[in-house]
Amino acid sequence: MTSLRSGGEFSLPVRVYIEDTDAGGIVYYVNYLKFMERSRTELMRSLGFDKNFIFNEDLMFVVRDVAVTYFKPAKLDDALNATASITGVKGATIIMQQSIRMGEDVLAAGHVTIACVDKTGVKPRRLPKSMLQTLRGASARA
Amino acid sequence: MTSLRSGGEFSLPVRVYIEDTDAGGIVYYVNYLKFMERSRTELMRSLGFDKNFIFNEDLMFVVRDVAVTYFKPAKLDDALNATASITGVKGATIIMQQSIRMGEDVLAAGHVTIACVDKTGVKPRRLPKSMLQTLRGASARA
Amino acid sequence: MTSLRSGGEFSLPVRVYIEDTDAGGIVYYVNYLKFMERSRTELMRSLGFDKNFIFNEDLMFVVRDVAVTYFKPAKLDDALNATASITGVKGATIIMQQSIRMGEDVLAAGHVTIACVDKTGVKPRRLPKSMLQTLRGASARA
Amino acid sequence: MTSLRSGGEFSLPVRVYIEDTDAGGIVYYVNYLKFMERSRTELMRSLGFDKNFIFNEDLMFVVRDVAVTYFKPAKLDDALNATASITGVKGATIIMQQSIRMGEDVLAAGHVTIACVDKTGVKPRRLPKSMLQTLRGASARA
Q: Could you write out the three-class secondary structure of C68-117?
């Protein structure tokens, strides 16, 4: 699965399958959030922060808020890109800008705020120092 | 399926099934958007705007933007309520406030903007006059 | 949420929402398996076997195999029933017959074999004795 | 997205994301059917039968029946392969054997019968002659 980075933007190819569509004949708008999360996950993995890292640190990441604007629909078989850029890192929070594109067209765009919490899933926890540094280094605004 | 209305708020009971959860042991945050849409759909149906109405009018509704803030997680078997309130109606657009609650607790809240478009799914179309009036009458701010 | 039982068959009303459909304009066939599981879950709950019972007994249920035949498609807004009947109970295994119906029409039908395993999710475990008796009493072939 | 063929078996790499998991901490068993369909879709695409071909021929493919046996669970982050092999082609029907594997381990396996129908989605239609020949040529039992 190829992916490229330029100017701090991570881009993951996503193919639209029948599971992603709805009776309107287009991608069900909720599913763009899944595509965006796949991209965030691969961005984090590319920086060394996979499931094992997170388990070893006894922390969890939860989505605090999400906002998406939809511009154009995608359809079955479309070859899309889901992008993720780190645009904010502080204390216990990571902010990412995300988009769904087809070629040069932006089909949807938005941002998501992710909170670092302890294993109970409730109590905020500061990001591990090394993670904070790496994420800041990978930030699109760095 | 019972549902009640008070002060313009529509509330749909939603049970959490295993399909709704993720490996964090909680409801996958993306799925709250499905619960919210179920509530919007039932609100519209209760006002007479079901699939047949929409087909007969040759129009479509598409989500233009959505924003959700997450406060507390829900878990397997939880009995939730997904609420929807019409808070804005103009020209070709409907705005709804939505929440996911468990008893008095608000687990997630947000709003969604829905655009009325023609059958092609692209060109904006004014809401049918009778619909405009009914939705304004059902508005939480009416 | 109403549900009725006659001759050992449990029936859960299921409304088709846009989330359930695909670009073919019908319910995505994979989603019938979710409807079937909702019905199984409510059948088990009606017998006293909810999440708490299962946690207290330190056991888990996993699907061992599933087979479904599809006869007719369901569409957006359709009011369906997902049925579940216990047709086999032995040792560590429960077999259920299931169907998706609209009125008298059977849209899909199949069966699922569920295995009782220990908390690790791997090792088979005999059903608790009281559960075995209750399930046999509720069996459609009892 | 790489994929390889040997002995008529098509294999598609599939990464497990949080969207695929459930509160049991494993891949939700229903989602294996999505992985299997992705693999079928890519197999058909590799043979020249993509959405455009199907639209041009005014036909549709619907799943007639599906059966899956589950052997071992997959977990978050796992790198799986979803395989598809054409094992039967006749008249209006295609049968495929499918599996989900991790390395040499078979996590799930089954088969699916796909029926060719006309645009109404109901009436059976013979496979186009050129398609019949190509699929037989690609059959694992050819």
A: EEECCCCCCCCEEEEEEEEEEEECCEEEEEEEEEECCEEEEEEEEEEEEE
Q: Which residues of C3-40 are buried (b: 16+ CB within 10 A; e: fewer)?
A: beeeebbbbbebebbbbbbbbbbbbbbbbbbbbbbbbb
| Structure tokens belonging to residue D55 | 């639209």
Looking at residue D73, its amino acid is: P
Choosing among B3, B12, B14, B18, which should be mutated to test the C contact, i.e. which has the most C CBs within 10 A?
Answer: B18
Total number of domains in chain C: 1
Q: Is A28 on the interface with C (CB under 8 A)?
A: yes
Measure in Å the smallest separation between the Cα of D8 and chain C Cα atoms: 25
In the chain, the amino acid numbered D128 is P
Hey, is the C-beta of C63 within 8 angstroms of any chain A C-beta? no
For chain D, the three-class secondary structure string (H helix, E strand, C coil) is CCCEEECCEEEEEEECCHHHECCCCCECCCHHHHHHHHHHHHHHHHCCCCHHHHHHCCEEEEEEEEEEEECCCCCCCCEEEEEEEEEEEECCEEEEEEEEEECCEEEEEEEEEEEEEECCCCCECCCCHHHHHHHHHCCCCC
Best residue in C2, C16, C18 to probe B by mutation, most B CBs within 10 Å? C18
pLDDT in tens, D26-49: 999 999 999 999 999 999 999 999
Subunits with at least 3 CB pairs below 8 A relative to chain B? A, C, D
Provide the CATH number for the domain around residue B92.
Answer: 3.10.129.10
Residues of B in contact with A28 (CB under 8 A): none
| E-only strand ranges, chain B | 4-6, 9-15, 59-70, 79-90, 93-102, 105-118
Copy the structure tokens of residue D35: 């992985």
Give the closest residue to D61 by CA, choosing from C25, C20, C24. Answer: C24
Q: What pLDDT is stored for residue C8 in this prediction?
A: 83
- Mean pLDDT calculated for residue range A86-104: 96
In sequence order, what are the residues at sequence separation of 6 or more whose Cβ sits closer than 8 angstroms to the Cβ of residue C134? C47, C48, C49
Q: Say what percent of chain B tops pLDDT 70.
A: 94
Can you give the length of chain D in residues?
142
Predicted complex ipTM: 0.92
* Closest chain B residue to the Cα of C14, Cα to Cα: B1
Task: Please give the residue range of the domain that contains residue D91.
Answer: 3-138
Which residue carries 């978050």 as its tokens?
A: D76
